[in-house]
Amino acid sequence: MYNTLLTLLLIDSVLIIIAVLMQPAKNDNAASALSGGAADLFSKQKPRGFEAFMQKITAVLGVLFFVLALALVYISSH
């Protein structure tokens, strides 16, 4: 059981890395900090399509990572 959970944790770790790398970049640079926030007016839109899908996948994989890690700790302590 321990080895199965450890394997699932490693697979989940690789999938999290891939999901984070596939997310589109947000271009926040120093110029936007000096512009007085005028660019922030239109940047508060909800993500749609691929970006929203990747955010959900990353969140699910992150929760799964912590559940697997806690299960490993529980199994290894008993």
TrEMBL record:
Which keywords label this protein? Answer: Cell membrane, Membrane, Protein transport, Translocation, Transmembrane, Transmembrane helix, Transport
What's the protein's topology in the membrane?
Multi-pass membrane protein
* Residue ranges crossing the lipid bilayer per the database entry: 6-22, 53-75
Q: Does the keyword Transport apply?
A: yes
InterPro entries noted in UniProt: SecG (IPR004692)
Subcellular location, principal: membrane
Top-level taxon: Bacteria
Q: Work out whether the entry's keyword set contains Transmembrane.
A: yes
User: Where in the cell?
Assistant: Cell membrane
Q: Kindly name one Pfam family recorded for this protein.
A: SecG
Q: What does this protein do?
A: Involved in protein export. Participates in an early event of protein translocation.
Q: Which PANTHER family match?
A: PROTEIN-EXPORT MEMBRANE PROTEIN SECG
For this chain, the family text in UniProt reads: Belongs to the SecG family.
| UniProt protein name | Protein-export membrane protein SecG
- What is the scientific name of the source organism? Ligilactobacillus pabuli
